[in-house]
Amino acid sequence: MGSVKVKNLIKKYDDVVALNNVNINIEEGEFFALLGPSGCGKTTTMRCIAGFEDPSSGEILIGNNVVNNITANKRNCGMVFQSYALFPHYNVFENVAYSLTVRELYQGGPATKLKSFARLMSKRLAKPSKTIEQKVMDALSYVELDKYVERGVNELSGGQQQRVALARALVMEPSVLLMDEPLSNLDKKLRNSMRTTIRRIQQEVGITTIFVTHDQEEAMSMADRVAVMKDGEVVQIATPTELYSNPQTPFVADFVGSSNIFEGQIKESTKEGSVVNIGDVILKSNIKLDKKDVKVMIRPESIELSSNGKIKDGENVLKGKVKISTYLGAQIRYDVMVGNHEIMIDQTFEPGTPVLPPGADVKLKIDPERVLLI
Ligand SMILES: Nc1ncnc2c1ncn2[C@@H]1O[C@H](COP(=O)(O)OP(=O)(O)O)[C@@H](O)[C@H]1O
Ligand SMILES: [Mg+2]
Prior knowledge:
By secondary structure, the protein is an alpha+beta fold.
């Protein structure tokens, strides 16, 4: 059983509160991401699950069992780290076969004295049992490295090394796979292809996976659900699409994608929603809230922009002036001043249409459905 429950988890290092009452339920077979900025407690959460840290209080369950008092090596968690942590003097096959071989050696009690351990290991790794050979080759074919068995790990690319690390974790048939920023050392292109590889393998094996990252794109593109963390707390747990379209705090709205966020006041409740003031700007939103002071959030791509009269005056139409325009390939990011508010707008770039220069007069239009209030 590979479900994971984290209940009221608190972890303190002296007076540093690293985790402040974290609650997470991960279902069997789920790909679950822990997402948040550096220092928010992602690694600490993972280390508590794996058994490398003792919680100050709270419970960890794997399957139906409370594992707080079970040592790391008996929790059956596979780990993959940012730094690969491969054995440099062993080849690909030996790296993946290592733990299985140790386990085989120690079956039925301590098999040997420490002194002869290394010699015994080399012998076993050179002539593995049929079972181990089969398991290692299966794991290596999952990560598409079965043609590289005899290659030294230092002769592999970063992406290949990380795939060896993944095979080494999978070969132990863990009930949970824990990955801590596994793609951070790779360049962008490789990172993107590794995302697909990891997701494919996770689905094929069906293994419960917890994936730690500070990269929102990574979390959003890979995970079934994402927990966004901040300052040792979980701020929101949701599917990627829910998280993007319905962020529950300004922090989530800004961390997951980017967002215009303004302080506003609800001036009037209407049948459809609310009318809000942001300073002297008035906007309609389809959201009703039972309070006056609100945060108004508008995604940059939710705003229509035109300089040529395509947008007629009316509801939720604002007049502004381009302050900065940034050409980003598929998109143009405009920073537009509306009164004294600066608003970010992302517009899809259409070849042939000019990028508007700073100073250009523009009109903006925002669908009331895209004006989020919290
Ligand atoms: N061994 C430790 N001793 C003291 N403080 C620690 C230790 N490990 C982590 N912390 C602190 O706990 C907080 C969370 O750290 P961590 O879980 O590593 O964050 P993340 O992985 O999200 O970057 C940070 O403030 C960090 O400085
Ligand atoms: Mg970390």
